[in-house]
Amino acid sequence: MNVRRIDNGDRKAVLAYLEHAPYENAFLSWMLGSDTSTVHAPLFAAWDGNAVVGTLYLGPQIVVAGASDEARKALAACLVHARRPSLLVGTVADVESIEPAVREAFGEPAAVRTRQPVYALTPEQLRPAPHARVRRSELPDLEMVAYHAAAMTADELGFDPRRGDFSAFREGTRRSIERGWSWIWTEDGQLRFKVSVGAVTARTIQLQGVYTPPEYRGRGYASAGLHAVCNALFHEGHATLSLCVNDFNRTARRLYERLGFMEVGALRTFIYLPQNARRLPSLRLT
After folding, report:
1. What is the largest CA-CA distance in the chain?
2. Strand partners, 58
3. Which of 37, 156, 172, 244 suits 286 as a labelling partner, its CA being 20 to 30 A distant?
């Protein structure tokens, strides 16, 4: 088995390999297929003869996708070239297979999300919900959206971007808004619901950051808001939508299933705190 960093000539073969699990691999497919500069990212592929049998992205978050334990372990040898990431993610089998190498390379994670179901939705599956006044975020919304996105990060990952240099986090939110990837529902200038797009591929749009501020939960904002965004994206011609959720988040899972999302796979994530970030006492280990 041969492992090497991909080049332009490998793009088609690697994308075809990723299509074997289009929802779990949506981020990698987007990274590789979005523009020609993507191949300059640290993305490695494992080859068995002329066939791609695994990939490993060594970015700020590390993403592994292997077809076998042999492929995964061959790719794991590349971890010695990586800095400690904020996240390491792959299917349950992917991460389980390389876990010893991950812990040796980066130490103990701050938290492990042992199983994160991946859900997918087609237009035919989308079930009715009340009307919602959602819209795409605009640049005047930047501070509000970034603030609530950081609050969600604090809840989900155990560190609060607002406690350090907030500029990089805000810039990521700005890029999302400029792409048209950020959706919000506001009333009286206050956020009621938000969701964003994490990746766009030929097969699916991957949603992330589904969030309602705590003071507005239990009033139906998430159900109506997410339905409205899904409906809008389907009307724009996208074939499927997908998202990932922690298995212990029963409320979110019930919401997605009520709207018609179906479970199609599962991921596992190791969470590492960014450099100089302080862990919040409420971080939940699973």
Report:
1. 61
2. 62
3. 172
DSSP for 169-225 reads HHHHHHHHHHHT-EEEEEETTEEEEEEEEEEE-SS-EEEEEEE--GGGTTSSHHHHH
CB neighbours of residue 88 within 10 Å: 26
Q: What does pLDDT average to over the chain? A: 91
Quickly list DSSP for 223-253.
HHHHHHHHHHHHHTT---EEEE--TT-HHHH
- Number of helices (H) and strands (E) in the chain: give both, helices first: 8, 12
The residue whose two tokens read 């992330």 is: 208
Start-to-end CA distance of the chain, whole Å, equals 34
Closest by Cα among 138, 118, 101, 116 to 263: 118
pTM metric for this prediction? 0.92
Q: Domain 2-108: state its class.
A: alpha beta
The per-residue pLDDT for range 231-254, each reduced to its tens digit, is 999 999 999 999 999 999 999 999
How many beta carbons lie within 10 A of that of residue 281, not counting itself? 6
Q: How far is CA 103 from CA 33, 100, 167, 271, in A?
A: 30, 5, 30, 12
**CATH class of the domain comprising 134-266:** alpha beta
Domains of the chain, by residue range, sit at 2-108, 134-266
Best CA proximity match to 183, nearest among 217, 220, 149: 149
Query: The tokens of 190 are what?
Result: 């206050």
